[in-house]
Amino acid sequence: MTVPENIDDTVDVAVVGAGIVGLATARALLAQDPRRRVAVLECAAAPGTRQSTQNSGVLHAGVYYEPGSAKAELCTAGRHRMAEFCDRHGIPVRVVGKVVVAVAAGELDRLDALAERAARNGIPGLRMLDRMELQEIEPAVEGLRALHVPPTAVVDFAAVCRALAGELPDVRVGWTVRRIRDDGSGVAVQAVDGREVRARAAVVCAGVGTELLAAASGVRTDVRIVPFRGSWLQLRPAPAARIRGNVYPV
């Protein structure tokens, strides 16, 4: 929900950024202590309108991560917890599966390596498909071989962000943070228009803007955020009817 600007501007924790990470962080802080005053500050006009929703909406099964790593374990646990959250909020989760397709002989070794990694990550239902088996699952897709990953799903992350924001009592939009000042007894989160929120602590979940905000706040670090762009295609309804799930290159 959005709160009026005349509320008490002293809180326990200020969370900068109302993408899916910031919203989930605020939700977790309140779950730990419902009495905790948590304000989420978002520069856009609504929560979850940037990185969190400018993507393909895939809920990944965990094919690519190093077995035993935190990413592999959190991907699996997070997929189940996200499905439970969506079920509680009436958000559809379409378990459409994925095929990772090798279209050239030079890709077969890498496909085998992905299959081994996915198996070590405990993904259920994995199956290596030959050309004919691939076309039984995806008749419009051509390839030499493919790895079928049944648990891969698709979800509307904009709806997820709206549901998360709906569980929070203090989400403030149109709030562009200029810097965070630490005065020893807490922090002052300052907006570009002069507004300020005081807090005992701040958690910055500002995506690619985090590095710039850190520098503006006097934080020196050798950690860099290196953005990159992925590409995905969403088909029009007629050709989309020919594709049953997600189709990935090796």
Task: Give a description of the structure.
With 250 residues, this protein is an alpha/beta fold. The protein is built from seven helices and 13 strands. The chain has helices at 20-32, 70-89, 108-120, 131-137, 157-166, 210-216, 237-240; strands at 10-16, 38-41, 58-59, 93-94, 98-102, 127-130, 145-149, 153-155, 171-172, 177-182, 187-191, 196-204, 246-249. Strands 9-2-1-12-11-10 form a six-stranded mixed sheet. The chain has a four-stranded mixed sheet with strand order 6-7-5-13. The protein has a three-stranded antiparallel sheet with strand order 3-8-4. Helix 1 packs parallel to helix 5 (157-166). The longest helix has 20 residues, at 70-89. The protein is elongated, with a radius of gyration of 22 Å. It starts with 9 loop residues before the first strand and ends with a strand. The model has no long low-confidence stretch (mean pLDDT 93).
